[in-house]
Amino acid sequence: MRPDFIHEFVAGKSGRTLLLLHGTGGNERDLIPLGHDLDPDASLLSPRGKVLERGMPRFFRRLAEGVFDLEDLRQRTHELAHFVIAATERYKIDHRQIVAVGYSNGANIAASMLLLRPEILSSAILFRAMVPLVPETKPDLRSKRVLIGAGAHDTIISPSNTKELVDLLRNAGADVTIRFFQSGHELTSDDVDLAREWLTK
Ligand code: MLT
Fold first, then answer.
1. Furthest-apart CA pair in the chain: how many Å?
2. Which helix (DSSP H) or strand (DSSP E) does residue 19 occupy?
């Protein structure tokens, strides 16, 4: 696997970098406006997922909706971690202040990164995430903050799956805030407002 990704980088004024991870069918430009909205001072690093599903970019392969190719997910998680490390050198990013902001498929690989490569992220905002995998060894997430925005009427992710993800992260020591919105799988302005406020804490 090659650690290079098509990506956008926007230099910010603060030491924080938001790692923006789009949903299925998205690209590296999709979440740039969201990143600016969440934190106008942060740098933005936004890769495009390299897996194509009927022409739609994703961050890892799936066998069916919600059924993941776990071997591919593991490899792609390490590949993305490698890309982030290389980007910290290339763009002079503070590696201690990288916050993942993922939506749907992007939230799932962000959750996978927390579980397999926790050293990469200081915290994570996961919009419409599910359990990506259960790691063989429990990561130490005691210093990590995680915000999960879920849709109470999401037809792709059941509330019980979201709760399993919360338990998995909390059992590893993460400080998890979970909020269910009266929405489906789509991102809402309530999600964005909550995330913006959460980032200021
Ligand atoms: C996934 O494949 O990561 C999830 O089903 C979310 C999606 O991309 O639809």
1. 41
2. strand 17-21
How far apart, in whole angstroms, are the C-alpha atoms of residue 70 and residue 196?
32
Residue nearest to atom 7 of ligand 1 (CA): 105
What is the helix (H) or strand (E) element at residue 70, kind and residue range? helix 70-90
What confidence score (pLDDT) does residue 2 get? 60
**pLDDT (0 to 100) of residue 105:** 98
> CB under 8 Å to 29, separation ≥6 — which residues?
8, 46
Identify which of 164, 180, 148, 157 has the alpha carbon closest to the alpha carbon of residue 66.
157
Task: Locate 54 and state its tokens.
Answer: 């009927």
CA–centroid distance, 60 to ligand 1, in Å, is 9
Buried (b) or exposed (e) across 11-42, using 16+ Cβ within 10 A?
ebeeebbbbbbbbbebbbebbbebbeebbeeb
Give me the mean pLDDT over the 60-86 stretch.
Answer: 97
Percentage with pLDDT > 70 across the chain: 99
Cα(47) to ligand 1 centroid in Å equals 17
Which residues does 188 contact at the CB level (< 8 Å), separation at least 6? 181
- Is pTM beyond 0.70? Reply is yes
CA separation, residue 183 to residues 31, 55, 133, 154, 156 (Å): 19, 27, 25, 7, 12
What is the model's pLDDT at position 1? 58
